[in-house]
Batch of 2 targets.
Target 1
Amino acid sequence: MRVLAAGVAYGAWAAMSFAQTATSADYAIAHAKIFTLVSAPIEDGTVVIHDGKIAAVGANLSVPAGVNVIDAKGLQVYPGLFDPITQMGLSEIAAVRGTVDTTETGPFNPDAVAATAVFPSSTHIPVTRAAGITEVMAVPASGGFDSGGASSLVGGQASVFYLAGWTMDDMAIRRNAAMVIDWPQIETQSFDVSTFTRKEKPYTDAKKEYDKQVEQLADYFEQARHYAQVLDKAGSVSFERDVKLEAMAPVVRGEMPVLVFADRARDIRDAVEFCDKQKVRMILAGGEEAGKVKDLLRSKSVAVILRPTLGQPAEEDDAYDRLMTQPSELEAAGVKFAFGSFDNSFARRLGQQAGNAVAHGLGYEEALKAVTLYPAQILGLDGQLGTIENGKVASLIVTTGDPLELTTEIKYLFIKGQLTSTNNRQKDLYQKFAGRPKTGH
Amino acid sequence: MNAWMKVLVALAAVGVGASAICGAENAPSAILIRNATILTVSHGTIEKGDVLIKDGKIAAVGTSVKAPADAQVIDAAGQFVTPGIIDCHSHIAVDGSVNEGSVSVSSMVNIADVVNSDDIAIFRDLAGGVTTANVLHGSANAIGGQTLVIKLRWGQPPDKLPFEGAKPGIKFALGENPKRSNFRTPGTPDRYPATRMGVEETIRGAFTEAKDYKKSWDDYNKRVAAGEKNVIPPQRSLKLDPLVEVLEGKRYVHAHCYREDEILMLLRVAKEYGFKVQTFQHVLEGYKVADEIAAAGTGASTFSDWWAYKVEAYDAIPYNAALMTQRGVLVSINSDDAAEATHLNQEAAKSMLYGGMSHDDALKMVTLNPAIQLGIDKRVGSIDVGKDADLVIYNHDPMSAYAVVQKTLIDGRVYFDRNKEIAGRGALEQEKKDLLAKAKKAAEKEKKPDEADEKKGEKKPEEKKPEEKPKPPHVEDERGGAK
């Protein structure tokens, strides 16, 4: 590693109040091309990191003595990538029940908080980090193979955290970032993971079931609203505590957004109408057919966290590339969106997902923002994350090139200003077996 | 069939019909692809190069290639031409389940019997540059069903899909799937094997039987050849015939596996019974025993970066392909999944990052290497004179996330043309709308007599069962609301 102690006299640095307190934990990344995502990329620029924050960024900055300098000539600096939908730390090995804590039983689990069950020593964390991802949101009941087919209506609270730290207390950015709602589906066909069989149901039955579930959800919100009203009067009235409804209070008060998983256009329409009626802020998760309701999403200012572009559209007669062209369609319609991996082991494909959307018409800068700034904005964390600006948390990556490209290497990675290892179990296994003596079989 | 169903059937045909336009066109006898960066795979890159196709075969490759006057010219300036992508592990174009999961040895069943040429996955993979796929039985059984190599000739009937002359194969499976660790066929009792020990014994048991069976046929044939009369032939076994073909080298073994121990197990069993394992599939721990795989001359067909979905995939590393290649194993990258197949070029490129593979070696893993693994490299896998004109034209270097397939050719015929596909979408949408309008009209007509009945009051209200009235189904739901 080319980290050198700087002996350079300070210039711009001197103006800063903390110049005297520069410590060995401070860094300057010098001579890099810096993609701040606020203004045009800075050629031969420097980022100064002090006390975990970005202290300065620009060209021709000099740095004070005692600061570790990384000569990043030929390298590029970006904000760390932010994967807003994962099961990070909630699932280690999808097929092994004992390692999976993604989905609670029963339809209503608003008091289940992801951060409670995130395993800080999960092997997935360093593996994901090596792909340049510095923050994630772990989302309970987010479906997929890891859920074992279980589903709930109110899935629990999603938590945002850094991919580094000894405990969740170090890692947490926001434990109660969003309330997960798994929007019901009219399921005429379903795939049962436990038996590996397809089950069919008449449409009318499926629709009835759907309507019933939506009604249940509305009732639950109604209960929660009443409960919140009682809470507001706590002291003057006596009431029986209900930890589940208590967890819903910030939602019905409009303080916590709901993260609604829905993919089909008609489900999205129903969900938007529901959230509008309930006066809660909705973030759409999944959105396979978001493009078909883009005007509605824009008019209601609903942001979308898109599931992977590298998938197959649900309808046989959909355009084959619809999932990949959809991001550019949303961009043109003015709908805010971010990319999510919706996974653990495939979280490292986040950049690839965005890159493929660029190949199908999405603006490059928009794609970059959709894996950095936009997830932060959608979750209300852009005050601290998402761009390289003075005062923001120093969460950034130093790369050999474009982070959306397949062959780009993450050379250095900073989380909360700390130079964080990109090593992991997979690299260790590679080293170990690359060193196996040649056998004479 | 009511009016709605008829329309639904018609609708289903729209997608197929329209997309098949390319396939239905007769290929011109000569095509010249001009001014492209040609990634030949076998002999380097040709800048501003041309490929001449004649009668479905590659007739010339180079710069300033002369073409017959009537040749159709494709100007590919700024674009990249590669051999067609070959997916060594696919389950597309199969009608119904890919697993005959009721028995541990299902060698009697054959994918060739259930080819579905209407599977939309064929078209989508073709649009991702795939021209050839090794269509495999599932991995539920230690010895699974017979497999089939196909070309993705979208729009052609089922009997035109098989890759002519490609050696047939059979699927084997080791580890968690055949021992039914993670799921079970509903309504069936526990099945032998339940351990990796049992998986080995299932295979040994089957080959012991197959050897005896072969011997009884060999004896019979010898006696008949010697002129002996009235010899009673042994009983045919549809289960053992394919295994005899394996012993005789007439059928490839494609073995699904994960862990290092089970990889070595199968190599031992193969040695004991005298057959060759043609490829290990998935082989996510192949990097641990790469020397042994290389020494056996067995190929490895693996994923780019899949891991952790089950215990036997926990030691999977994205360096697997590169490390096995460094140790002398012939490696391909496969999909196992219709969606993954649409970007196999990108999956191959990841080995340039994970393990420092060269650009050309990475591209080989989805072209020439799988062709060799499937024994079809004399026909496909590289851009060489005499080979089938199975080609992909990309707008960008295919080892990049920014590459999009522009055209896919099979046998010198353009089966996928992105521009034409996009241009045709409006007409397709209109046709769909028209059909829906027609359906609504028909449904209204059907409804009217009922309403008339109600008005006349000919039936007593309690006799009516409104909930049983055929309601027009929501179109979306009739055709797969599966998630």
Note: Confidence is low (pLDDT under 50) at residues 1-20 of chain A.
Target 2
Amino acid sequence: MSVNILDEAVEVWFGPQHVSAHGWATKLTIVGDFIVECDPNAGYFHRSAEKCLEFRDFRQGALIMERLCMLEAFLAEYPYVKAVEKIAALEVPERAKVMRTIMMEASRIHSLQFWWGQFAAELGLFAMLLWPWVDREYFLDSFEELTGSRHAVSYNTPGGVKYDFTEKSVKMLLRALDRIEERIPTFRDMILKSPTFKLRTRNVGTFTAEQGLKWGLSGPNIKACGIPMDLRKDDPDPDLAYNMCDWEVPITHSEKHPGGSDAYDRMVQRFKEIETSISIIRQLLPQVPEGPIVDPKARTKTNRLPAGEAYGRVEGTRGITTLWLKTTDKAQTPYRAKIRGPCFSSYYSLKHLVPGSTFADFIVIFGSLDPYPGWWDR
Amino acid sequence: MIGGGILLQIDFIAWLRGIPDWLYEVIRWVYGILYALFTWVWGLFVWIWAVVMDSFWFLFKAILFPGLIFVVLGIIFAVWFTRKTWGRVQARRGPYHMGKYGGLQLFADAIKLVAKETIIPDNAKRWMYRVLPSLLLIAVLIPFAFIPWDNNWFIADLSVSLVLTFAFLTVVPVVSVLAGWTSGSKYTLIGGFRAANNQFAAEIPLIISSVGPAMLAGSLSVMGISQAQANFWYIFLLPVNFVTFMVSATVIVGLVPFDAPVADSEILFGWRTEFTGIYFTMTYFAEFAKQMLFCALMVAMFFGGSYGLPFIPPVLNFIIKFLVMLFFFVIVTSSFFRLRQDQVAHFCWRWLLPLSLLNVVGAMLAIVYIPGLAELLQLGGG
């Protein structure tokens, strides 16, 4: 008589009302304490952003984009802005290029700070939730000083940026950088040297670089496997100022899993990302040239766009974020906008990563990939 | 004949004349009943009062000072203290709106929770669901009777009170599993079995750790162990036993490094997920009561109970040490990432159990080979 362990399988829905699942739902099939099947379900966070973009003109569209992921608002709105600039043939002033880059990197730091606070809470150390968030407040304050809003910044606009740096906003940004530079080494040692953190994250959610590339992962998840895949270096955007400073793509060579990564390595990688971003901002801030912040013809040229197709992309916090835009002649709104968020692939890679792990490790694997539901439910 | 020739069958006038007598009888009858009732109640009151006066101090202790009301107020203080300390650790202020320094916050929370609607899930076994939280709270509150706050201020002193305390605490995981089971939810069931796993992992190290003090004092009574430390606190001889006891206590209470039973990011709130309103309050209080009980046991078994600074009252000595232990517990709970449940069992059996045994052996060798230690410990009926 053979016994099929799947006879005793139980289906458990992780979300959408689970406290760790902020709006997403995954169906897990568990036998005892082990997950045998993981079925990610996109759609619980759907806000039809792509359709909304078809009803907004070309200066309003960026506002929809940044609402997909509030944490990286400066980065999220960039692909749309870039695509519009390509179709409208706008010239971005030098000053705007540098300012864009600085604010996008600040946004990246702020998003990563949010992530690791939340990851610590998911791992059970609730005390650590607010420590990075305190440092993050300084960034939010500087965003508020610059744009008037803490999260929905609407900073990038076709042809440049909307708000100029003031002396106070630069000072606040520098203060945020000083504070985070002072505190990050302590926090990194506190987390990465913690024996309980190693117990929970070592050998959890392991995949090789080949697997990751096959599943379409990008960003820190693939850089943690030791592959220097970064759009900032690989495809230098002429409208951004990454070539004006000296930096290396941060990668992590896993000690335990050569050619691959586990949750621990992804944590290491994200701390390296924060340090790289700090260094980029530090180098770019003295180099901001004088001049206009927006193409003077931007307003007239973006009222109606010629027919065309364009493709904008940026290396977001969570991976490559792209948008494809198609317009008809003399169009006031896009004909079609297709968003490819970085997290759809990382969310659906759970299907391969989770089976075989314990129920307790599910949230660790999920958190270590840093998916944001806004990116997979456009 | 009066009245138009109608013949009355009774003598109406005589009947009217008899009414006062009749009323008198009725009133006497009612009065008799009332009097009997009153004398019965009064007798009862006199009897109860006599009983109360006979055992006045026992009742005072059981209800007021080291007893129920003191413990419940202590729980409320412990919750406030924990929240305030957590707030400081997490770079925020903790409760501060209600009362001075948020001191009334817990009363406000309790009123809110009691006033909430009690929602019982369709799949729940209603009778069990209603009874279990109360059972849990009672099982956790009873062992407070054995805590020796002072040589005089205690409720009960049994010769086996240490064993009995652990026996009562064994009820807790049973209640957890039952609560998880009868709540009719998958998450609560997982949480219930995780609670059982924690108890399974840590109970043996806990009891082995308490063997050391019990052997040195030659007594299984918490009171006896506490009194035997008049000259010498056992923490100096059994430091490893203290650490293993404290870690096992953390596992059994389910505090942060070992809070798999109520891991909020994994299984919502474990076996307590479906409890609302007053039932949730009871389970929440029971957890803090258990934490306080272990703090008190640690003070009594390792930190010399009420012996300490000679110029302050012994009860205050105990309470100060108790608060230090509570603070230590809270700090520990905000310092570690959560362990997985198999790692909890591995940790307890691989490390805690051998360590606790080794320290007992080490202490015995120390008593034999270090001169003067046996006299200090008052061993051998000294």
Note: Chain B has a mean pLDDT of 86.
